[in-house]
C-alpha cells in the first residue's frame, strides 16, 4: 500500500525549491505502473509530476529515483526527449521516501503496441520515430555529459545476469525451473563484448509520451534501470514486443504487422543498425540478447510478484502481472534450446 502524501509538507518543499510554484496544490496519483509511485501535482499556474521511491522494504539497488533524476537532467538539451527536471529531495520526512519533481508533459501514452487508435501511416511513422530516438540515445557521448561514472565499464551482460539472478532469488515466491536453467546457462554462453552507451533499461512503448497529434516522441520516461552498458541489449529489450503476445506481456506477436503498417522485427532491427552504422548483426548474438532480455523480464516480473505478496506494490494489478514471470521464463528457455542449442 502506498501512503497518501502529506500535502502541507510537500507544498512547503515545493515553495522553497521550485521557482514559480504557487499554492494551492492538488495531488492525484497515476494509477498505472508497477514500480515507483508517480503523482500529478496541479497548481493554479502549472502542472508537475512527482516520482518517489515506494514505501516498505525494497530489493537492493531497486527504485533508484536519484539515478533517474541524474540521467534525465544530464540529457536535457541534447536532443533526447526527456521531461525538464525541477528538483530532487533526499529528505524522507517530506513524503515518506526520496523523490524528484519534473515538468508535466502533455501528450499521449499508448499501452497497446498495435496502436489501434492510429491510422496505418501514423503507426509506421510512430515506430520510425521511436527507432530514431533509441538510436540517437545510444550514440550520445555520455562522458561529455558528465556520466562517465554512471555505470561500471565492461562485462555488462555478465554483471546484469548476476544482478537479475540475485534479484530473482531474493524475490522468489514459487520456484521456476526455467529460471534455474537460465541462471546456469546464460553466463556460460556470453557473446563477445559490445560497445558501451547509455542504456535506458525499459524501452517499452508505454514508457514514452507522444505528441498529442503527431507520431513523435516528446518524452522518454522511467529511467530507473538506466546505466552504462550494451546498447544492443537495450534495443533487444525494446524488441521483446515483437516476440511476446499481448497476454504474455504487452506484446504483439501474432498480429498482422504488415496490415497494421508496423515494421516487421527484422526491418525494425535493420533500420536501427543503419542509423547507428553497425552493419549486419550476428543472428546468434542477437538471439542471445533476446533470451537474456526475456530472462531479465521474468526476473522483473518476479519482483512485482514479491511486492504484491508483501503488500508494497504500487499497482492494483501487480499480482496478475507478477504471475507472468513463469511463462516468460519458460519462453526464454525454449528460445535458448531451440535457437542456441542450450541443454
Brief write-up:
The chain has helices spanning 7-17, 65-75, 92-95, 120-138, 156-171, 177-185, 231-238, 246-249, 257-260, 265-276, 283-310, 318-322, 325-340, and strands at residues 26-29, 38-42, 47-52, 85-89, 99-103, 197-199, 208-210, 217-220, 227-229.
Please explain how this structure is put together.
With 343 residues, the chain is α+β, with helices and mostly antiparallel strands. The protein has two domains: 7-103, 2-Layer Sandwich (Phosphorylase Kinase, domain 1), CATH 3.30.200.20; 120-340, Aminoglycoside phosphotransferase (APH), C-terminal lobe (Aminoglycoside 3'-phosphotransferase, Chain: A, domain 2, Alpha-Beta Complex). It contains 13 helices and nine strands. Strand 1 and strand 2 form a beta hairpin. The longest helix has 28 residues, at 283-310. The chain is globular.
